[in-house]
Amino acid sequence: MTNVLELSGVQKRYDAVVAVDALDLSLRSGEFLTLLGPSGSGKTTTLMMVAGLQQPDAGTITLNGASVAKLPPYRRDIGMVFQHYALFPHMTVRRNVAFPLEMRGVSKTEALRLVDEALQLVGLPDHGDRLPKQLSGGQQQRVALARAMVYRPALLLMDEPLGALDRKLREQLQLEIKRVHQERGISVLYVTHDQEEALTMSDRIAVFNQGRIEQIGSPEELYDRPATRFVAGFIGDTNFLSGKVLAVSDGRCEIETPAGRLQARATQGLLVGASASVAVRPERVVPAASAALRGTITDVIFLGTSRKYVVRLKDGTECVVLRPANEAALGARGSEVELGWAPAHATAFRDG
Ligand SMILES: Nc1ncnc2c1ncn2[C@@H]1O[C@H](COP(=O)(O)OP(=O)(O)OP(=O)(O)O)[C@@H](O)[C@H]1O
Ligand SMILES: [Mg+2]
After folding, report:
1. Which pLDDT belongs to residue 291?
2. pTM score, two decimals?
3. CATH architecture of 3-225
4. Using a 6 Å CB cutoff, which residues line ligand 1?
5. pLDDT value, residue 39
6. Distance, CA 45 to ligand 1 centroid (Å)?
7. Most buried among 53, 146, 279, 318, by the most CB within 10 A?
8. Which stretches of the chain score pLDDT less than 50?
9. Superfamily for 237-350?
10. What is the DSSP string of 267-332?
11. Atom 2 of ligand 1, residue of closest alpha carbon
């Protein structure tokens, strides 16, 4: 498969701050890849270097196999959408969307046709004559999307494009962006710090932490098989139980905790005798007869499709359990329960 974009050993410093550190990343043709990470982890800096709005201190960036080092932003075949609508306020929607085509010397009639098509695609076919201020926030963001795509760039960069919108509108536009991505077969590099948004939209997610990628993979891989404790904690809800490593073999391990002896997938760096944490998702914890863990239910919360139980284990740690509401209840508040999970559903990480 061909890669649209490749970053190799890319680094960017701002004085003492290493914003992006020895970054390797490739985007496959037609892929929707999301950079997910906490504030300040280097996501925007990465996008700016790809766009040509910042220069890397080291490393190479290639677009469709050719280095972009000497290409100014407007010569890179890239469309961009930012968090805050960057429409020209004095131009109509139609002229805003036509602008990149004018810059590229596309003929008037061809431009009209492409603009109409782009406005149709984002669901605003009748809004061409309005000014940006006559549109809602969500509509303005759709115009920004139409403008970024109208000249059919090889690559679309989006930096928190839905960050300023309310939840309902955000969810609606997430689906629209996905649809546009699929219909156009466009490659997308997307930035968000919202893990749900990343899970919903992406073919693959790169989890950023302090200028580095902790793990890159499909949403399922990151959720079910996190490679680091940071990834396990950043995506989805997780219980962490700490203890000492008893044994490691064949990618599995056994961890002795004050609450019981636990089985889990092993990750790199686990040493027998050293401290480790076991991460397990609340929905992976099940009632079990030959149970590893015993505890007392201290809270039951009805969530509609599921029930959430807070269980206090015998050493005082809390473990959250999520069971479908149509399943028999785990127990009432105050009752004793025995819990377990399939070893493949938990992951152990080295501490420190
Ligand atoms: N122009 C700049 N000058 C100095 N430092 C900067 C500059 N831009 C970014 N930084 C620093 O580089 C690091 C990475 O910033 P970046 O904007 O890439 O983070 P981010 O992952 O996009 O965060 P957010 O989710 O808050 O947008 C941060 O420590 C930030 O303070
Ligand atoms: Mg940012």
Report:
1. 65
2. 0.89
3. 3-Layer(aba) Sandwich (3.40)
4. 14, 17, 19, 37, 39-45, 193
5. 93
6. 6
7. 146
8. none
9. Nucleic acid-binding proteins (2.40.50.140)
10. -TT--TTSEEEEEE-GGG-EE-SS-SEEEEEEEEEE-SSEEEEEEEETTS-EEEEEEETTSPP---
11. 14
